[in-house]
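[job 0417] fold request received: Xylan alpha-1,2-glucuronidase
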Amino acid sequence: MKRYHWLFTLLLTTTFSYAQTPPTGDDGYRLWLKYDLITNVPKRQAYAQAAQFIAMTGNSPILKSAADELQLGLTGLLGKTVPVVTSAAGRKGGIVLAVSAGAGGSAMNNEGYQIAINAGNIMISGKTDAGVLYGAFALLRQMQTGQPIDRLSVTSSPRVQYRMLNHWDNVDGTVERGYAGQSLWKWYELPERIDPRYRDYARANASIGINGMTVNNVNASARFMSAEYIQKVAAVASALRPYGIRVYVSVYWAAPKTLGGLKTSDPLDPQVRAWWTAKVKELYQAIPDFGGLLVKANSEGEPGPQDYGRTHADGANMLAEAMKPYDGVVIWRAFVYKADPNGDRFKAAYDEFTPLDGTFDKKVIVQVKNGPIDFQPREPFSPLFGNMPKTPLGMEFQITQEYLGFATHMVYEAPLFKECLDADTYANGKGSTVAKVIDGSVHGYARTLMAGVANAGSARNWTGHPMAQANWYAFGRLAWDHTLSSETIANEWVNMTLTHEPQAAKRITNLMLKSRDIYVDYNTPIGLSRPWTGVHFAPEPWQNRSPRPDWTAVYYHKADSLGLGFNRTETGSNALAQYRPEVRAQWENPETCPLPYLLWFHHVAWNKKLTSGRTLWAELCTRFYTGADSVRWMQNEWGAVKSAVDPGIYADVSARLATQQREAIWWRDAWVLYLQSFAKQPVPAPFKQPERTLDDVKQSVNLYLLR
Ligand code: BDP
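[job 0417] inference complete; emitting structure tokens
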């Protein structure tokens, strides 16, 4: 039925279109901070009544950013200039920005805000100016989404302390896994020229509560530690500072050798320690509020402390010591795995890190990817969460769509983020969700972190795919408050970014909410994964040659004449033993393991009857075909909102959906034809055997990889 519902929608929508004059000329640059004139006149008048002036008591740069933003926003939304004044004394009907140490009492943390009606004014208060800035954006959001503001009483605090974007940007302007043009950072112009985009980038981030950003790729160049680059990074930091955003740098572990001319980068060597101490001092001299260092070490060929027989903790603690005099942190990534023909990459991070629990300096946060493998379309949560009670673990999500169709597939990621955050680790009994591990409530972590690998680049609309802006937005909103639902966030974003027409907004929100499952269906259903090839886009399930076994496709899916999937139970790699018994119990029995995770944990026979009532082969085909067909449903849903969204954005998304449709069929055909060579069964009705052969698909993939 599912595969035909787009047809039904088409019939419905041909007789129905939205009555609204389409706005024009939107290039997407303004993201969700659009501030177009509110066309609902009574609503606009009500807002105007309550926002006649902006009183800024105090004048820090961050407070000024808050006042500037309110002025910009209100001018656009209300169609008139709202003055900024220095005092609200004797006045009513305005917005008052106030920093006070006691604001919100103990119910609010340092970055929280309160919006309340006070003496006839809307008072935005915070313990710090950053809190007020977040409150100003929250008030604007209230108006952008059409909510009343005359009886406001809102208190909100971020649940996570370090809310960061990680840019994987290189010195030459390229972006690792970036699909939206080149790097935002114009290193060749810096430090002299500050591109105006940096400020707009900072505004967008502050609007969703992001307060930190690493400028460069985790596969780092030592150049970022050079005096020349420290000045450039300092210039970027100066553009972001008025928005409460601190800058971090990814370090190349072997920099003491390559840059410092030392003979070693051994973390226990006194000269190496002295080198880092001096380097960190230099960083803080240039950037007094420098956030800290992000480290990828002994991972995928990057150097690290293990090159000298030392542990991750030895390495991290050495940097933490250099950082001691300053208010910065060391963020050490747990993304590690070795080339082991008999091993299971799934288990690697847990095996390396859990023995180190309790040995890290208190300035260290260990940053863990959401899943045990690598940003797959659907992964179980990493077993590290809940298993390192004495080490603050931070979350690393990937916003850029490395495995989610780059910039041509529409995949709204909030459901993926939420699936992981809401998963129960049972670390401290029922309800010990990953989110509660991350926000410190399960283990009482002193520092809490959520990082997202950024998807913003030099593309005029920042993210390439216009809908990918929603993933940046959703990441920030969830880092602030992981209890928000995917739907609430999508609905906010759609209203702020695409349309206020309620039916159209509802339709787009629904489309977004379904998009990730549709992608999983045609890409990696029932727990398949695909971290192979350097490109991470083309389907290549047959790929079986590489310098490392874990860099082939066959390593992950284990298709053979008997069946498909990775046995991670006791009779296999036993990765399941890394989870609590309650979690294990959900997944270890192939009869009851939920289908979305089945092939993650079990090697299942082709003719095995699944809980859906279909055999594995029939279920796979059903997913691949309905997934690919559902992209046509997506196209039709999008078609139905044409009159309610900007024509430029409409056309852009429509074209990308057409590409997505073609590519979804490519994925479907590649998997179905390849797996059929093992399952040796026809494609079940009502689905039709692909028109091309396996060789045809292989050829098209080879051509793709030639590019
Ligand atoms: C993988 C990416 C690779 C990154 C690596 C990492 O393919 O480009 O360097 O993760 O996170 O997903 O370090």
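[job 0417] notes: The pocket of beta-D-glucopyranuronic acid is lined by residues 176-177, 218-219, 296, 335, 374-375, 402 (CB under 6 Å). The first strand starts at residue 54 and ends at 56.
[job 0417] exit 0
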